[in-house]
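Friendly challenge for the regulars: who can give me the structure tokens for this chain first? No prize, just bragging rights.
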Amino acid sequence: MNPKKVVNVAAFLEEDIGTGDVTAAIIPESTQATAEITTRESMVLCGQPWFDEVFKALDPDVKINWLAAEGTSVNKDTLLCTIHGSARALLTGERTALNILQTLSATATVSRQYADAVAGSGCKVLDTRKTIPGLRDAQKYAVACGGCYNHRIGLYDGVLIKENHIIAAGSIAKAVQIARAQTLTSVEVEVESMQELLEAIIAKPDRIMLDNFSLADLKSAVKLNAGAVELEASGNIDLFNLGAVAHTGVDYISIGALTKHINAIDLSMRITLVHP
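First reply, four minutes later:
Bragging rights claimed.
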């Protein structure tokens, strides 16, 4: 699996280095070193392209040998990779590279948990736009690494008509009609009641989001819809009730927690060999 694009690495490095790494400067410029990256907890590995780019930006001749593949589950205390290159570059890039790797691996790890929870149901778990600023594409890549799926990337690649859009447009029907006339992207409508669901089905969007519906109402919604449009459940869904929601018959479940309720994976980098 390849990321769509590796971006922002220069900005990440600038944030940390500023006018220069005054601590790494104590190491002679010619010194070469080898370092090892180890995980201190079980995880789904994700973020190798960004990690590599950090060190390549600091030392074009750096050699990185990954011992675990992107998107695979690894156990606690697993050696993830070895790095050989300029000692200064390794020291300067350490925190930026680990920050990215620990964040994207956390996103992939959580996504794997949610993907496993709906396995066999036919329902797909989607991410949302509730991402860390500057890491939208990277986190959505990590979601896919973990086995879940991407909702729209931003405001430009899909219409999602919510309560305030409906109020401003006048009705669900008018909102969908205008959206159809203005764009060729998919059109989705969020509804909060069975009455709104019926209005949305008649308007014929591509998908309807059922916001904060109970399990009973989700089942009723699936029955009322009868396959007319795709249905997506959202709101107050976590690992404890995810399976039950998936088995109501909805096509998708969107979960903000995939990208915003994450705890960074605990990673370690240690220099193991120095070549003056």
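Residues 152 and 158 are 6 Å apart (CA to CA). Residues 87-117 form the longest helix (31 residues). Your move, everyone else.
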